[in-house]
Specification:
By secondary structure, this protein is α+β, with helices and mostly antiparallel strands. The protein has eight helices and eight strands; from the N terminus they run E-E-E-H-H-E-H-H-H-H-H-E-H-E-E-E. The chain is globular. It starts with a strand and ends with a strand.
Length: 266
């Protein structure tokens, strides 16, 4: 069992309140491992990254009475989810590793929210199951992680949210068993037509004057098409959508992925 955080913004009387609805997600089947991935973990050409987290400083709104009030409400909402945060804290994400199979997103691409989101989603979901491994995908995703800097988020949990999302039963990433079956069947996924828009609830929250602690923090609604090919079958194209939250990357300069939620396909 793991934890799948989901954020909803409530706007009232000019006050932004972050409601953290952290729901338990069952059926994970354990943490990812190389022997269950459907493909070997790459042993060569890996690059284990070191933290270089340095978010730009927020320069507006931080000291106002309204900002302080909003932050206090967000912290109270977060602190009320102690058991769920504790469950996230027990997770053990993989080391942040890039490889030939899952390379780092370029520095130029990660300077814009839209360009980064498109690149991240495309790499996350463009998979040759027989040639790439599930553990390597998770290691790459962890290398693209952005910590959650909202008031009241426990420090240890803040760097585990993306992994909690992607290893949950509602993740777009297939389970180890399904990954192995896809590899045996010669299945590949390819992403096209990615489009990003700022989530309306996020826009409404910012419009009230609340300033996030990390200026790169933003919630995006992402849509696109997933083309699925399989040996002996005609390609099938399916639309998909998800919610992607961004922030300042832990291991790179620029944007990183904070959370992935609300995955739908077809």
């Amino acid at each position: 069992m793991s934890v799948h955080p989901y954020r909803k913004w409530a706007i009232g009387a000019g006050v932004v309140v972050l409601l953290v609805a952290v729901g338990l997600v069952a059926g994970l089947g354990g943490s990812p491992g190389g022997s269950r991935s459907g493909a070997p973990v790459l042993k060569k050409a890996q690059h284990v990254l070191k933290s270089q987290y340095s978010p730009p400083l927020t320069t507006t709104g931080g000291g106002s009475a309204q900002q302080q009030s909003d932050n206090a409400k967000i912290a109270t909402a977060n602190e009320g989810k102690g058991a769920q945060w504790a469950a996230i804290e027990t997770l053990t994400p993989p080391a942040p590793v890039t490889s030939r199979a899952f390379p780092a997103i370029s520095n130029a691409t990660r300077q814009g929210a839209d360009s980064y989101a498109s690149a991240f989603v495309s790499e996350l979901l463009s998979i040759d199951f027989a040639k790439q491994s599930r553990p390597s995908l998770f290691a790459w995703a962890q290398s693209e992680m952005a910590p959650d800097t909202l008031p009241g988020t426990p420090a240890r949990a803040s760097t585990r949210i993306l992994y909690a999302n992607l290893s949950s039963s509602t993740s777009p990433v297939p389970t180890p068993t399904k990954w192995s079956a896809n590899a045996a069947a010669g299945v590949t996924w390819a992403v096209s037509g990615v489009n990003e828009t700022v989530a309306p609830l996020w826009s409404d929250a910012i419009a009230t004057g609340w300033v996030p602690p990390d200026p790169r923090m933003v919630g995006l609604d992402v849509t696109g098409n997933l083309t699925i090919t399989q040996r002996g079958h005609a390609p099938a194209e399916r639309p998909f959508s998800l919610q992607l939250d961004l922030g300042t990357a832990e291991y790179h300069g620029g944007y990183g992925a904070l959370s992935v939620n609300n995955w739908t396909e077809g």
